[in-house]
Write a structure and sequence with these properties.
By secondary structure, this protein is α/β, with parallel strands linked by helices. It folds into 2 domains: 11-44 and 288-389, Aspartate Aminotransferase, domain 1 (Alpha-Beta Complex), CATH 3.90.1150; 61-284, Type I PLP-dependent aspartate aminotransferase-like (Major domain) (Aspartate Aminotransferase, domain 2). It has 15 helices and 15 strands. The chain has helices at residues 17-20, 22-26, 45-57, 67-81, 96-107, 123-129, 151-158, 181-193, 222-225, 235-238, 253-264, 275-285, 287-311, 337-347, 374-389; strands at 32-33, 90-93, 113-116, 134-137, 141-143, 146-148, 163-169, 197-201, 228-232, 246-249, 316-318, 325-329, 350-351, 353-354, 365-369. The strands form 4 sheets. Strands 2-10-9-8-7-3-4 form a 7-stranded mixed β-sheet, sandwiched between helices. It is globular and about 60 Å long. The structure holds pyridoxal-5'-phosphate.
Length: 391
C-alpha cells in the first residue's frame, strides 16, 4: 500500500512525551517539537492491524515471548544486513537504553571508566554516570563539516586500564555516520587488545540513506564477535518506542545468562502484551512501509539542506547518511549555548535538542528531528529564517 507521510496527525491526545513535555523541557508548551527521536508518522498498517487484533482478544495477562519473536529478529538481520545471528544468544529487553545501562553496571565496577565518542546520544553519558562510572570522551574530530575518528586518541584511551567498556553508536547519532567496516574493525581490535568490552548500539541501523550499507560490527570477524554485545530494536525504525522493547545479542551463553539474571532479579522478564506482537509484525511485514519512509526522509534532508543554503546560510545542516536527525552547525550565529537555546525557543519557537548535551565541550550546535511531515519542517524553518533575519 502507499503510505502518506505528508499527513499531519494531531498528537495532542496521543500521550506523547515529544508534545506533552514541551513545557517541562523548553519552558514553553507551544514550540514546534523537533527534539526527542520519535516520528510524527503513523507506523506500518500490518503493525497497527496486529495490535488491533491483540486488543480485541481482550485478555492481556502475563505474556509469553514465543520463539517466533527471536526468529523474526534473526530473519530481519539476515535479510537487511546479511548477519546470521544465533537466536539462542539473544535476550529481550525493555529498550536499548535499559540494556546499555545494565551492561555498564554488569561489566564495570564503581570508579571504572566507559569510553564514548562525542558528540553522541546523551544517554551514553547518563548510563555511565548513573552507576558512578566515569566517562572518557574520544572526541570525533570535525574538519570542513565532516567528522572522523581520532584513532590515536582512541587507542590511547583504550589503554587506560580503568576503561572497561566502549559504547559504540553505529550508525551514529547525532552525526548520521555509517561507519565503514575498516573503521569498525580497527576500533573493535583496539578494544580486544586492551581488554575493553565493545557494546554496540545499532538501534538506527535500519535508517540508512544515500546508498550506504550498515555493517553489524559483530559480523566482521569471529574474534570481534567474541568481544561484542549488540543492541538492536524495531522501535526506532517503526516508531514503536512507547511499547518498550529491544533485543540484545551476546557472544556466549555466560554473558547472556548474567544479563538475564540481572533483569530476572527485578522480575522484569516478560513482554508487555503488545510489544512482541508489534515487533514481530514490524520485522515480518513492515519492510514496504520502511522503504517508503526512507524515501520520504531523504526528501526531508534535501529540503532542509536546500532551505538553509538558500535562506539561512549561517546555519549549516549536516545531511545524515543514517538516522532522521540533522545536526545543525549554528556557530556563525556567535551565541553561547544558553543564548542559542533561548534563541531557538523564544525567537524561533522551536523545540530542538541542545548540541552541548551530546558533547559537553561543544558550543553552537543543535539537533533537529526531521521525522515529520514536510509542511511541519517548512513551517519550522520559516520561523527559524525569520528569527535569524531579525538578529
Ligand atoms: C543511539 C540511541 N540508542 C538508544 C535510543 C533509545 O532506545 P530505547 O528507546 O530502546 O531505550 C535512542 C533513541 O533516540 C538512540 O538514539
Amino acid at each position: 500500500m502507499k503510505y502518506n507521510f505528508d499527513e499531519v496527525i494531531d498528537r495532542s491526545q496521543n500521550r506523547s512525551s515529544k508534545y506533552d513535555e514541551r513545557m517541562k523541557t523548553f519552558g514553553d508548551g507551544s514550540v514546534i517539537p523537533l527534539w526527542v527521536a520519535d516520528m510524527d508518522f503513523k507506523t506500518a498498517q500490518p503493525i497497527i492491524d496486529a495490535c488491533k487484533k491483540k486488543a480485541e482478544e481482550g485478555i492481556w495477562g502475563y505474556t509469553s515471548r514465543p520463539a517466533s519473536y527471536f526468529e523474526a529478529v534473526k530473519e530481519w538481520e539476515k535479510k537487511r544486513n546479511g548477519w546470521d545471528v544465533d537466536t539462542s544468544l539473544m535476550s529481550w529487553c525493555l529498550g536499548v537504553v535499559p540494556a546499555l545501562s545494565a551492561l555498564v553496571k554488569l561489566y564495570t565496577d564503581e570508579g571504572d571508566k566507559v569510553m564514548i565518542q562525542t558528540p553522541v546520544y546523551p544517554e551514553f553519558y547518563d548510563v555511565t554516570e548513573a552507576w558512578g562510572r566515569e566517562v572518557v570522551e574520544n572526541q570525533l574530530v570535525e574538519k570542513d563539516g565532516s567528522w572522523a575518528i581520532d584513532f590515536d586518541d582512541f587507542e590511547k584511551k583504550a589503554k587506560d586500564e580503568r576503561v572497561k567498556v566502549f559504547l559504540l553508536c553505529s550508525p551514529h547519532n547525532p552525526l548520521g555516520i555509517v561507519w565503514k567496516p575498516e573503521e569498525l574493525e580497527r576500533m573493535a581490535n583496539i578494544c580486544i587488545d586492551n581488554g575493553v568490552l565493545l557494546v554496540s548500539d545499532e538501534i538506527h541501523s535500519d535508517l540508512i540513506f544515500h546508498g550506504k550499507k550498515h555493517t553489524p560490527t559483530a559480523m566482521i570477524s569471529d574474534r570481534i564477535a567474541a568481544n561484542i554485545v549488540t543492541c538492536v530494536s524495531a522501535t526506532k525504525t517503526f516508531n514503536l518506542a512507547g511499547l518498550q522493547a529491544s533485543t540484545t545479542i551476546f557472544p556466549n551463553q555466560e554473558m547472556k545468562a548474567k544479563f538475564d539474571r540481572f533483569w530476572m532479579n527485578m522480575d522484569i522478564h516478560r513482554n508487555n502484551a503488545f510489544s512482541s506482537v508489534a515487533m514481530e509484525a514490524a520485522y515480518r511485514e513492515g519492510e514496504e512501509w520502511l522503504e517508503q519512509l526512507l524515501e520520504y526522509l531523504s526528501g526531508n534532508f534535501d529540503f532542509v539542506k536546500e532551505y538553509c543554503e538558500k535562506y539561512i546560510p549561517k546555519i549549516k545542516p549536516n545531511v545524515p547518511d543514517a538516522t532522521y536527525l540533522v545536526w545543525l552547525d549554528c556557530r556563525e550565529l556567535n551565541m553561547t549555548n544558553e543564548e542559542l537555546r533561548n534563541f531557538m525557543v523564544k525567537k524561533a519557537g522551536l523545540g530542538l535538542n541542545e548540541g552541548w548535551k551530546f558533547g559537553r565541550s561543544l558550543t553552537g550546535f543543535m539537533r533537529l528531528n526531521t521525522a515529520c511531515p514536510r509542511s511541519v519542517l517548512e513551517k519550522a524553518l520559516g520561523q527559524l529564517r525569520n528569527a535569524v533575519n531579525a538578529l
